[in-house]
Amino acid sequence: MPRTFTPKVVTANALLEGDAVWLTEDNTWTRDMAKAELLTDEAHAELRLLEAAGRQDEIAGPYLADAKATDDGPAPTHFREDFRTRGPSNYNHGKQAEV
Amino acid sequence: MYSYNDFDAAFVAERNRQFRAQVERRIDGSLTEDEFKPLRLMNGLYLQLHAYMLRVAIPYGTLNSAQMDQLAFIADKFDKGYGHFTTRQNIQYNWPKLNEVPDILEALADVEMHALQTSGNTIRNVTADHFAGAAADEIADPRPVAELLRQWSTDHPEFQFLPRKFKIAVTGSPNDRAVTRAHDIGLRMVQNDAGENGFEVIVGGGLGRTPMVGKVIRDFLPVADLLAYVEAIVSVYNLLGRRDNKYKARIKITVHENGLETIRDMVESRFEQIKPGFTGFDQGLLAQIEHAFATPAFKAASTDGYEAARLANPAFRSWTDTNLTAHKNDGYAIVSVSIKKHGQTPGDATSDQMRALAQIARDYGHDELRISHEQNVILPHVHKSDLPAIYAALREADLATANIGLVSDIIACPGMDYCALATARSIPVAQQIATRFDELKVEHDVGPLKIKISGCINACGHHHVGHIGILGLDRAGVENYQITLGGDGTEDTHIGERAGPGFAYDEIVPAIERLVLGYLDLRTDPEETFLQTFRRLGADPFKAILYPAKEAQNAA
User: Does B34 share its domain with B157?
Assistant: First the structure.
């Protein structure tokens, strides 16, 4: 039986601000992970990562992060990715402050 | 303090000009991130979880009030109004924007500061005893040698592509406050039988994944031979150090794999080879640098007012009990300003606090400040008669916490709240431990105790040498915290031993509380510190406190 593919999102850091961004279906970068494209097919995910890696003047360090589908959109499964959607826990800085 | 000469100023300006152009080429897309990364790292710029991070060197932890004011200015203009003092005497800004970093570097250059070699596989910021030039127990001020090493190592053509990063620490005191035995090279000033100053040279120490206590490669090295000998060590390491495996690339592994004797023979042979090249220019330079670090003109005044204030004000007395260290001048004291107010982030100072510290240094401290590897700020030269006024000014700036060396004076790395390498958070654990012990009102009763927290195996939080060390890990997608016991970062450097299975995020603070309160029952008297009790009894009774259920199981 083929191994099941954990859904992914393409994520990176914005070039100027350095904060977390996610790739959407219509090829923009969003700061709201819920608006990202959820990739459920491995080959498609690899392709989207390659496409993202070509956009060097917008982002740095793209990678595929595990995600899960929710009613609101893709959500993180690991605490590191969860922190990236919010910001640090010691101050109200980063994305949590921008909402 | 050392002031830049024309060469230094021109060099830093040229590097900043180069980096500005590199940033421009990155932003317009001519440079990829892979191409840009080594260039930004050479200038101290990291890309972290939520933003870029700029690590600014504070060479040997020394700065003046104008520099501290400028750090505050940068925090306000380019960041979020604060900075984070690190365990390597640097300051980190957590929110700079890439296009503004060249301006920050220029603002730093205006006050003779830079971010060069605060990252990458080079010789990093040379650290020193934060009480240098002031401590009563000091043989001589180690900072001139540290400055000489800074100049020698900056852009040293042979050492820009070392197998791995390389850290040097220097102390001028027999009581090691610079953790020299946990550095790639540690230099501990000693005197020989003739009463001449020299260095005990320690090599191959380090924490991280494979913690090792440094080994003495030379018992006594005359000061005049220092640069040639250090160059010989780094040269041998550069040739021998492993480049096939990042985790085996530090000099501690090189020494471990080849043996100290082999390394010593190679270093001595290389030293003899290159020594003739050091024809005395470095010693002339050292003499000039020493002149720049001349002892300030200490004032003579009565200390009666200080004693009276101690008697009159219990809060002031408590602060003087914990936050002062003996100065070499009887009328003076060394003040450690705690950047560890209960519940705050260890090492974080706001721009207002930086300006307050700068003003105090100008008014009362011979214009000198230090950053300690324990993430506090030091006023090294303060006349005792000025202490009441200083305390009042510190209170005004919310900097008068009386907890130096106590449970809440915790070292913590940024952890997963900021760091891209981290496997768990450190800061909230430190905040919660400090808050909890403040609620319990026992920390003065508990006495000297060093808790050190790292958010990953790289050990920036020095957890291996904490009396209680905490290491945050990712265990199956959940934060988990391992406790080590009995570590020591002084001249008796000792790596702590793992207590047992780790604790979940919501279990770690109660575990530390159990451990510390349990120690109170184990000590013979209030004079026996946590570390002394641990050394007397060994780990077993402490493990029994940490894992009561398991003990009950064993007994059943």
Answer: no
Instruction: Name the token pair of B120.
Output: 């990458």
Give Cα separations from B397 to B50, B66, B354, B394, B406 (angstroms): 29, 18, 9, 5, 21
- In this prediction, residue B549 carries a pLDDT of 77
Stretches where chain B sits below pLDDT 70 are 550-556
To test the contact with chain B by mutation, choose from A6, A33, A50, A56 the residue with the greatest count of B C-beta atoms within 10 A, namely A56
Alpha carbon distance B461, B474 (integer Å)? 17
User: Residues A24, A31: contact at Cβ < 8 Å?
Assistant: no
Please write the tens of the pLDDT for every residue from B182-215.
999 999 999 999 999 999 999 999 999 999 999 9
CB contacts of B48 in chain A (<8 Å) are: 18
Q: Which of B23, B24, B35, B49 to mutate to test the interface with A (most CBs of A within 10 A)?
A: B49
User: A89 vs B427: CB contact, 8 Å cut-off?
Assistant: yes
Number of domains in chain B: 4
Does residue B142 sit in helix, strand or coil? coil
Position B104, amino acid: I
**Domain containing B485 — which CATH number?**
3.30.413.10
Name the residue ranges covered by the structural domains of chain A. Answer: 8-89
- ipTM, two decimals, is 0.96
Q: Are residues B165 and B70 in the same domain?
A: no
The rounded radius of gyration (Å) of the Cα atoms in chain B is 23
pLDDT tens by residue, A84-93: 999 999 999 9
Q: Look at residue B526 and tell me if it is in a domain.
A: yes
Same domain, yes or no: B40 and B60: yes
**Cα separation, B440 vs B406, whole angstroms:** 14
CA distances from A39 to A25, A44, A67, A80 (A): 10, 7, 9, 19
Per residue in B85-127, pLDDT (tens digit) is 999 999 999 999 999 999 999 999 999 999 999 999 999 999 9
- Measure in Å the smallest separation between the Cα of A53 and chain B Cα atoms: 10
Structural domain containing residue B16: 6-109
B157 and chain A: CB distance < 8 Å anywhere?
A: no
Q: Which residues of B touch A93 (CB under 8 A)?
A: 50, 80, 94-95
pLDDT at B205: 97
Instruction: Give kind and range of the element (H or E) at residue B433.
Output: helix B427-440
**B25 contacts B61 by C-beta, under 8 angstroms:** no
Task: Give CA–CA dist B423/B190, Å, rounded.
Answer: 40
CA distance B462 to B487: 10
